[in-house]
Design brief:
Length: 131
Amino acid sequence: MEWTRVVIALSLAFFGVLFLQSGWDKVADRKGNLDWLTGHFSQSPLKSMVPMLLSTLTLLELASGLVSSWAGVGLFVPVIAFPVEAALVTCGVTLLCLFAGQRIAKDYAGAASIATYFGVLLVAYIASSLG
């Protein structure tokens, strides 16, 4: 297997795990997540929108995890392939939403950790354009 497919497959697996776990946690423990996020955004302009934003983020994360997993499996089973670039764009939109929220909440350390995920995304996108 060529190196670009390995990088892409590992990146898609990474995002599949990341977003499926995070999205599922928001479904399984909505109240806990809502309580934490309400406090996290209590001093921001988003404080009144937290329930709607949590629902939106949950859907984005689950969608990103599903399409990443689907695209990753599709690398090995082409008959069910999902476009890698579309999966990466979906993950990028989700990461940008998370990043914007952290910046608005003035959680700069949290925003910095999301920036590392974005780096993985860019490496995967570069690999997909090369291979």
